[in-house]
Amino acid sequence: MKISATQTGFALYKEADVIGRCGVTPTPKGADITALSVLPQWRRKGYGSYLLKEILRRFGGYDREAATVFTAPLPADEGEGLFWQKFGFAPEDGRLVRRRTPDLTAVRFVQDYLAAHLPHPKLCIDATCGNGGDTAFLCRLVGPEGRVLGFDIQPEAVTSTRARLEKQGLTAELICDSHANLLQYARPGTADIVMFNFGWLPGADHSVFSTADSSIPALEAALAALRAGGVLSAILYSGRVIGTDEKQSILGWLRALPLEKYTVLVCDFANWADTAPLPCLVLKK
């Protein structure tokens, strides 16, 4: 099977024959599906589901971090209605509508908090660039007048982050060095935000991951870099590959910070697994 674009949408092929078609008009947050059909002899074999899933995927319908809206004509009968219902479509104002709000991930929770708490920062530090998601967020947050430093000890992470920023028209000072050395690049008491997202580099060798031996000195350097009123964020991980040592060591370090100098939040998602990402925030007084 393959799906090919047409002038009005997409065609589903089985070998050389077109067995299904879907009319699609892209919209800013998804797509309007004007029609979807499969040849009678190929119905009830999963081909319609395959075609609709692919349309939803191509237009962001399964993106956990995006708000999407898809529309389609009302079904002709109950059976067709049940088909659309399986994919989250429901009648609304004379159309079928599928709405999806972004999931609240640990990363989004931290970013939303920082954007609301510090809307106009001047100096921000991404201490764990990875593939550049937080770096790009900080670049947009500081705007053209601000400065962003991005650290990662893995050259491939710096390369990936640079490519992401270039694609989005953003700039940052990217440094291939341990985040424990960040005070060599930023003066104490000058940073508004320092972000950490521990663990491993997504898409790379998962046997390479952060450990408490380097992470805690980096967190201590980050606190020194922060100005009064600044915020440090850290997302902690655990699991079969990396164990719990780093997570538990950092939690112990966080809980020992003096109250007269810092407010510490450990933001547990009560109905998530114990190994789920754990966002933490340190507010410097």
Automatic annotation (TrEMBL):
Q: Name one GO molecular function term.
A: methyltransferase activity
Q: What positions does the domain N-acetyltransferase occupy? A: 1-114
Q: Which SUPFAM superfamilies match?
A: Acyl-CoA N-acyltransferases (Nat), S-adenosyl-L-methionine-dependent methyltransferases
Q: What class of enzyme is it?
A: transferase
Protein's GO biological process: methylation
Q: Is the keyword Transferase assigned to this protein?
A: yes
Keyword line: Methyltransferase, Transferase
User: InterPro entries from the xrefs?
Assistant: Acyl_CoA_acyltransferase, GNAT_dom, MnmM_MeTrfase, SAM-dependent_MTases_sf
Q: What is this protein called?
A: Ribosomal RNA small subunit methyltransferase H
EC?
2.1.1.199
